[in-house]
Amino acid sequence: MADGGAMMDRGFIPGEDTARAFRDALGRFTTGVTVVTIDGPNGPMGFTANSFSSLSMDPPLVLWSLAKAAGRFAHYAAAQHFAIHVLAAEQVDLIQRFHRTGAGFDGLEHDLNQQKVPLLDKALARFECEQHATHEGGDHLIVVGRVSRVVIQDGAPLVFSKGQFGGFSATS
User: Fold this and answer.
1) Interatomic CA distance for residues 149 and 159, integer angstroms
2) Residue 94: which H helix or E strand, with range?
3) CA dist., res. 3 & res. 156, Å (int)
């Protein structure tokens, strides 16, 4: 470093013996938090994900990725319609609700769109999508959705960084 301080280089080659370090390095990239919802075989389903990204403006495409080891993988991989909800900071309670052992939609008010996809209120943004394509991505399936409808509202985002959830504070 220019001021005389030394920055420790903790370089490594990603592999089986450095899996935790690789995960920690990925955690240095702060992401938003979403809930992806579908009409499942036994009713509405949802799960929290931070693997969301914009892909294209024309046509309007977004993507998210799904772990192949997920217990509900087959349902999400086959879903032709889904909604991605970008969570607001005050929606942190939805993280546990849509965790694999959470209550999911039990007792939670929600609407359904024309494709019977469950829709959550108060998200900063909601992208209602039709599956456009899927791609193999190692231990994940990359799902590309063509956005058919968007709903937005003002508010502060919920963010995820270094294994923790929190808010966003802009620098001046």
Assistant:
1) 23
2) helix 93-97
3) 36
* Residue 129 to residue 150: CA distance in whole angstroms: 9
DSSP 163: T
Residue 157 preceded by cis peptide, ω within 30: no
Q: How many Cβ atoms from other residues are within 10 Å of residue 79's Cβ? A: 23
Classify residue 38 as exposed, middle or buried by CB count within 10 Å of its CB (0-12, 13-18, 19+).
buried
The length of the chain is 172
Q: Which of 2-6, 55-59, 136-140 has the lowest average pLDDT?
A: 2-6
Which residues are bridge partners to 119 per DSSP?
Answer: 111
Residue with the larger pLDDT of the pair 34 and 161: 34
User: What pLDDT is stored for residue 155 in this prediction?
Assistant: 94
**What beta strand segments (E) does the chain contain?**
31-32, 34-40, 43-49, 52-56, 61-67, 81-86, 111-112, 118-119, 125-137, 140-152, 159-161, 164-166
**3-state secondary structure (DSSP) of residue 51:** coil
Cα distances from 55 to residues 52, 83, 90, in angstroms, run 10, 16, 27
87: Cα within 13 Å, side-chain hemisphere: 28
| Number of C-beta neighbours around residue 36 at 10 A | 25
Domains and CATH numbers, the chain: 32-161 (2.30.110.10)
